[in-house]
Design a protein that fits this description.
Length: 549
């Protein structure tokens, strides 16, 4: 049997408020997280660098360490390894938090360093509190299991001493032999119980790691079933989801030696006979259902024939929740009667709760990705529209003197976006001096009175070219009736203005030629009339008719 924790937490320790050490080099995040946890009833200690963590853990012995991965003096992974490699601190639960290292491989690296969990930022306060509460429950349950294991070990040591003493008493040889056999059976049973609990705890640890890695419901369900069978050694584990139309509980994932059992049964979640077994009842009544004598329990009567062939002797079903209601169940089967006791049930309920949490997380993650994609498409459409229309947009935070330009505005001025937008005080240099003065006056009026403006300006590029532009500005007024923000558009109308001027010139030319042409036609008409008059005087017919004149 492995050595026990040299610094066990006593029962009195576990009755104290939960103590959490928060480690982050960002003062705002550090204090904000501490306040959030304190409002939730936790006792919070703080550390701003990696070097301060091991001494703080040894001094305060926290239940949980929320450890920022990207610390300035010592990498969070290295801090975690030092804690886990120290005999005095190895039982401390360490949860790594990071906004920079959120990829699946990076989170796996954190878990491989010894961390008991990994949280990716950004994360909502409610989710953070829920995750912390879950880890605290796991730690408390771990301490309870270790206390029980310690007690069992002490009992075993006592039994061994008694057995050694009895063997030395030859007069009581028969009685000693019987007593030793009884004690040996008790020890074997105790060791089997410890091994079973350790397997379940190991499985639960892998469940939490799987939640970090999976990206879809199918992956989540398949991994949960695999972990429970391979690490907890159940004969079969499956997850069923309710069909709302038919109330049938359909198999979403399964794993184990007895998978053929599911081919011979039907399960529903309503009141029909096939819905009154462990799985259907767990979903319908939203509670855990345990059957420790599968072959003789009335609730499993419909499935006992198939259960005999599958080697099933006990079963337990736990509801899975999504959006506040039971949508399915996690059901596991053991090959021995009486398998599911209080500690096993508690751990499996934790596993079902983790699956429910993961479902909510995957749903929220899908919504986030969809929202980001919608925003990305909108931004792309806006950039394309601005490029086609040669219209840029800008914004000026008056208080911080922060200027923001759109990509099209950088193109209009032929400036590198990497250099950033120039400060507003630099803007007059971007325009013809006369136009810069008009722009300054319009901006001052917008700041003081909120008056919008529209100005035609001559913009000066870095290459010396002048562009004709149309500038619009609007003000967002604060409580003191002073502008806190200016924003607007800036359109390059050089080509449009040139085209309009060219069209005006062409129109003037057409009008001039039209006037000249009308003058010629009038003179020709007079000549035709004079010729007709001369022909008439000579007694000849006029050569031009009235239409030709």
């Amino acid at each position: 049997m492995p050595p026990l924790d040299p610094h066990p937490a006593t029962a009195a320790d576990r009755n104290l408020p939960v103590r959490i050490l928060v480690v982050d080099d960002n003062p705002d995040i550090l204090s904000g997280t501490a306040r959030l946890l304190e409002r939730a009833g936790y006792v919070v200690d703080q550390a701003a660098c990696g070097a301060a963590v091991p001494p703080a853990v040894q001094t305060h012995r926290p239940d949980l360490v929320l450890l920022d991965r990207d610390l300035p003096d010592l990498d969070g992974l290295e801090v975690c390894r030092r804690i886990k490699q120290s005999a005095a601190m190895a039982d401390t639960f360490v949860i790594i938090i990071s906004a920079s290292y959120t990829a699946s491989d990076e989170q796996a690296e954190g878990l491989e360093s010894g961390a008991d969990g990994y949280i990716a930022r950004p994360i909502a306060n409610r989710e953070l509190l829920a995750r912390v509460s879950s880890f605290v429950r796991i730690r408390r349950l771990t301490l309870s299991l270790r206390d029980q294991a310690r007690q069992l070990q002490e009992q075993n040591e006592s039994l061994q001493q008694q057995r050694a003493t009895s063997l030395t008493l030859m007069a009581e040889a028969v009685a000693a032999r019987d007593r030793a056999e009884t004690e040996l059976a008790a020890r074997t049973q105790a060791e089997a119980e410890i091994a079973r609990i350790n397997r379940l705890y190991h499985a639960l640890s892998h469940v939490n790691q799987a939640i970090v890695r999976v990206a879809t419901h199918a992956e989540l369900f398949a991994e949960m079933c695999r972990v429970l069978v391979e690490f907890a050694q159940f004969r079969l584990a499956w997850i069923g989801i309710v069909d709302e139309a038919t109330h049938a509980v359909n198999v979403a994932a399964r794993h184990g030696q007895a998978q053929e059992y599911l081919e011979h049964i039907r399960v529903f979640a309503d009141e029909r006979a096939e819905g009154r077994g462990p799985t259907g009842t767990a979903i319908r009544e939203n509670r855990s259902i345990v059957v420790n004598d599968f072959m003789h329990d009335e609730r499993t009567r419909l499935w006992q024939s198939a259960g005999v062939q599958a080697g099933i002797r006990a079963s337990a079903a736990f509801p899975i929740h999504f959006q506040g209601r039971a949508c399915g169940a996690l059901t596991v089967y053991a090959g021995e009667s009486g398998f599911f006791q209080e500690r096993e049930i508690t751990l499996l309920e934790e596993a079902a709760a983790d699956i429910s949490f993961a479902l909510e997380h995957l749903a929220s993650e899908a919504l986030r990705i969809k929202a980001e994609e919608t925003l990305r498409r909108s931004q792309t459409m806006l950039m394309r529209t601005e490029s086609i229309a040669h219209v840029g947009s800008w914004e000026w935070d008056v208080a911080t003197d922060t200027v923001t330009w759109s990509d099209e505005l950088f193109r209009i001025f032929q400036r590198d976006p990497a250099e950033g937008a120039p400060a507003f005080a630099e803007h007059p240099a971007l325009y013809h001096p006369d136009d810069a003065q008009r722009l300054t006056q319009a901006v001052e009026l917008a700041i003081s009175q909120g008056t919008p403006y529209e100005l035609a300006l001559r913009a000066m590029r870095k290459d010396g070219a002048t562009r004709l532009c149309l500038a619009n500005g609007h003000a967002e007024m604060g409580p003191d009736h002073k502008a806190v923000r200016l924003f607007g558009s800036f359109q390059d109308i050089t080509e449009r203005t040139q085209a309009e001027e060219q069209m005006a010139q062409q129109l003037d030319e057409l009008r001039r030629w039209h006037a000249v042409t009308l003058g010629r036609e009038g003179r020709v008409g007079e000549l035709k009339r004079e010729i007709n008059a001369l022909a008439t005087r000579l007694g000849e017919p006029p050569p031009y008719g009235t239409q030709q004149q």
